[in-house]
TrEMBL record:
Highest taxon listed in the record's lineage: Eukaryota
Region (Disordered) location: 1-39, 102-121
Coiled coil (residue ranges): none
Compositional bias per record (Low complexity), positions renumbered to this chain: 28-37, 102-119
SUPFAM superfamilies in UniProt: AMMECR1-like
All copies of domain AMMECR1, residue ranges: 119-313
PANTHER family recorded: AMMECR1 HOMOLOG (PTHR13016), NUCLEAR PROTEIN AMMECR1 (PTHR13016:SF2)
GO cellular component: mitochondrion; nucleoplasm
Name listed for the protein in its UniProt record: AMME syndrome candidate gene 1 protein isoform X1
Organism whose genome encodes this protein: Mustela putorius furo (European domestic ferret)
Length: 333
């Protein structure tokens, strides 16, 4: 499933169904995948197997301006099979669904992130080179150059998101990802173009927008099913919820770890926002919240601006097999 990030405005939350809204349209066009502006990258909206939805739970193509779009990846084999997000047969304190160790989001850097989230934990996998590769893929596509060759960073399989923001205020420009583990080389190549060109909330990106872009890569780790819908930490965990809507259909929605903190939401506000974005229209009661199946997870994230990408590539021009001329530097407008 894929998800997208977005937004600048904060949502107004209410336990009552939004008036005149359909599906997940009750929220403003903001959520965050990359951590600075709202990243709708966290929302999964599945209307059924194979149905593509925007990241805040609405159907893709529905014109919703917020949330990350989530769609089943095309050919997401690439190595490690999918990560199971179904609840365990018996619910303990927390059931680990994936093996990679958790790590906190990293700040932008021009070298691979080598710091770990805590002493004794493994080093972070996400790196600035992954963001550079995404810029390479998008640049080559927009200018008609041959796609870059295989990058040097690890090709391990991970669930992932690629988020694009634009301008000084870092408005969401596209965000789509997958909760199925994909080999990073093919996964980042695929979702770079999917998030840049096929996010139904935005028109396809153009060459003129490149100099103002920011690219974020998020790798999702440490999936755990929990029994209590409040058993997660704001700013630390991303959450994916599964619920039965008023029509008896199963729905899902997700937010990446940074979304709730950036929006200033508490646990209840975040859950209620996800329910609305997932298309739940009935009044939200505490009893209904208790029926939610919740999976928490963590992520590693790296963000790079276009200017940082150019600076990096000027020193490592052929590192990823880039045989095209780099574009001239342009200041942000």
């Amino acid at each position: 499933m894929a998800a997208g990030c977005c937004g600048v405005k904060k949502q107004k939350l209410s336990s009552s169904p939004p008036s005149g809204s359909g599906g997940g349209g009750g929220a403003s066009s903001s959520s965050h995948c990359s951590g600075e502006s709202q990243c709708r990258a966290g929302e999964l909206g599945l209307g059924g197997a194979g149905t593509r939805l925007n990241g805040l739970g609405g159907l893709a193509g529905g014109g919703s301006g917020s949330g990350c779009t989530l769609s089943p990846p095309q050919g997401c084999g690439g190595g490690g099979g999918g990560i199971s997000l179904s609840p365990p047969p018996s619910c303990g304190v927390g059931t680990l669904l994936s093996t990679p160790a958790a790590a906190t989001s990293s700040s932008p850097s021009l070298s691979p992130a080598a710091s770990s989230s805590s002493p004794g934990s493994r080093k972070m996998v996400v790196s600035a080179e992954m963001c550079c590769f995404c810029f390479d893929v998008l640049y080559c596509h927009l200018y008609g150059y041959q796609q870059p060759r295989t990058p040097r960073f690890t090709n391990e399989p991970y669930p992932l998101f690629v988020t694009w923001k634009i301008g000084r205020d870092k408005r969401l420009r596209g965000c789509i990802g997958t909760f199925s583990a994909m080999n990073l080389h093919s996964g980042l190549r695929e979702y770079t173009l999917t998030s840049a060109l096929k996010d139904s909330r935005f028109p396809p990106m153009t060459r003129d927008e490149l100099p103002r872009l920011f690219c974020s890569v998020s790798l999702l780790t440490n999936f755990e099913d929990v029994c209590n819908y409040l058993d997660w930490e704001v700013g630390v965990h991303g959450i994916r919820i599964e619920f039965i809507n008023e029509k008896g259909s199963k729905r899902t929605a997700t937010y990446l770890p940074e979304v709730a903190k950036e929006q200033g939401w508490d646990h209840i506000q975040t859950i209620d926002s996800l329910l609305r974005k997932g298309g739940y229209k009935a009044p939200i009661t505490n009893e209904f919240r208790k029926t939610i199946k919740l999976t928490r997870y963590r992520s590693e994230k790296m963000t790079l601006s276009y200017a940082e990408y150019l600076a990096h590539r000027q020193h490592h021009h052929f590192q990823n097999g880039i045989g095209h001329p780099l574009p001239p530097y342009n200041h942000y407008s």
